Amino acid sequence: MTNPKQVHETIVIERILPNCRDHVWSAWALMEKKKAWLGQGMTKLEFWPGGAEHLTHVSDMGTHTNETRYFEIKDRERIVFAYSMALNGRIHSVSLATVVFADHGGGTRLTYTEQMCVIPPSDGAEGRKHGWTALLKALEDFLATDTKLTA
Predict the structure, then answer these.
(1) CATH code: domain of residue 64
(2) Residue 42 located in a structural domain
(3) pTM over cut 0.85
(4) Beta-carbon contacts of residue 31 (< 8 Å; ≥ 6 apart)
């Protein structure tokens, strides 16, 4: 019997948001705002270097668990974190992610870069790209209705 090998992949997603950087940053930094676009299954957000985040989501596939640890938070400029994704208790990917925030014509350029180790069986980079594309769309939709601009 052969064991499937891990795969290392990278994804980059960029968005131009019409909201100012303070507004976009607050949606990552405040639990009430982050839950609004990331998911109500978030039970912990310790938004500081060394802090943790915990999120659970149930789908047709089972229970998805995300465990995050923050390594660098450079106010309104960059967030560096690592996270694992598990399905029904089995970790299938571990990632290092960087989110960069920059001014862009009155709005914000957000660049999300993720370097991952995919542990088969897994939906891999396609799954992470699909998930983060949907989450960043949810962020954009949230920001369109959020009236509290800063953290």
Answers:
(1) 3.30.530.20
(2) yes
(3) yes
(4) 42, 45, 47
Q: What is the pLDDT of residue 76?
A: 98
pLDDT at 2: 53
State pLDDT tens for residues 120-150: 998 888 989 999 999 999 999 999 999 876 5
Pair 13, 97: CB distance under 8 Å: no
Residue-number span of the structural domain to which 46 is assigned? 7-145
Q: Is residue 135 part of a domain?
A: yes
Residue 13 lies in a domain: yes
